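Homework-ish question, so no full write-ups if that breaks the rules, but can someone show me the predicted structure for this set?
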Amino acid sequence: MITAGIDAGAKTIKAVILRDGELVGRSMVPAGFDTREAAERAYNQALADSGLAREEVKALIATGAGRKEISFASDTVTEVGADARGVAGLFPSARTVIDVGAEEGRAIRMDESGKVLDFAVNEKCAAGAGAFTEAMARALEVPLEELGEFSLKSTKAVPMNAQCTVFAESEVVTLVHAKTPKADIARAVHDAIADRVTSTVRRVGITEDVALIGGLARNVGFVRSLEEDLKLKLLIPSDPEFTGAFGAALIALDTKRV
Amino acid sequence: MAEEFWRWTESRWTSPEVDWKDAKIITAGVDVGSVSSQAVVMCDGELYCYASMRTGSDSPDSSRNVMNWALQETGLELAKIKYVIGTGYGRVNVPFASRAITEIACHARGANFMYGNSVRTVLDMGGQDCKAIRCDDKGKVVQFLMNDKCAAGTGRGMEVFADLLNVPINKIGELSLDVPEEPPPVSSTCVVFAKSEASALLRQGWPKNKVVAAYCSAMANRVVTLLERIGVEKDFAITGGIAKNIGIVKRIADKLGIKPLKCDIDTQIAGAIGGALFGKALIEKGKA
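A: Not a homework solution, just the prediction itself:
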């Protein structure tokens, strides 16, 4: 049985193709300004990656902030539902899911069957989302992809007072002017966002095992800060940003199996 | 170098009517904010001179620079000023200040001087915070609420927008009123997200003035919420840099149904004025 999932996020659109629940194709494209067009492209690329034709897909479920614009999907599911299903498929022992994307952060508590018990979302403030690290990387003049690795060179914890992304940008510039080593500032940046994310997670309660998904899970500096904050080891999939799309495709499979 | 649209006008002023040589008590207030710094010198409780400039990365340096600029060409030396009060975010980092007083107290006191003793509610819209203050007829603080965690509703947020839209910051207010009808406000609270939203609106073909209007409307909504939590009692005054933005002031007035008082004195120096007045009061009470 072939099923598909598309996750239309704020910055990127992810598509995955599953054969009987196993990943056979995937693709990620920038969201751009036309969600539908970008989703179409991501889907076609994922199909090409799997070597399958569109007609072979029995069900396609869309998720993510732009899910309603994907008119060619057979159904939609919330990000919370998709995340929980995706993590349950990857890590059956996980009871808490932390998803940190470009413009949103969310925490989900679920039972052993992957059923959602509680969740909390931050979508109002950039300080708990990828947009924060993006702005700080710019202020530090360090490429975003290198920011995490770079922060691991830090030898000293420096405090950041600002919570707000806009204020933190000014603070980073001030710290740079004060000759604070950039690696230490990068570390402070990751400590700050981990702090914000942790406060969202605490609202749903922390039950182990805890999985981290979303694009920020690729940032080793953020992972270190978050693990230190939560005092536990996080389960992280090899392609963390695809977890939502994977979950949507699993739900598509579930609906066909019933 | 690219034009800096966020950059507001720094200024200094000396009173043509007051001569420091005739004064009995000369005091000063230095307000080191997170974005701007002001120094005000008062002679016997009259405004004598002031300067307002951008805060640098070092608070002590900023306080010295702004004080020196205020005194420039007046012939008055810092040593002749009897009492200096430091206020604002960097108030403890004013090396030549005799005492530090919070900016809440100073803004209420300053607004009382600037707008008269009928002022009961002061909205101070600063660079990195926004405060709603209730005060009595002596300019004493009765109650206050502040947002200093989030750039929405602050001058810094406005600077970010000026840069995004390539509109000089002192033209934003005017431009925002140049719309046939008020557009719906930008829906994101966070300045970072509001920026993305504004970019999307521009791409959809919204003219700049309409986007500016939508942002000013959202910002006014944000501070009105703060004001409503504390309750607005007349008379009402707005201080700080944003008080110079007619687009924000008009929208706040419309939403509240209360017109803020007008004043000829630079609204950014309210805190420093309050500081200088506290200095004079301390000397008179023998507590200096």
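Now go work out the reasoning yourself. Hint: The domain at 93-236 of chain A is CATH 3.30.420.40 (Nucleotidyltransferase; domain 5).
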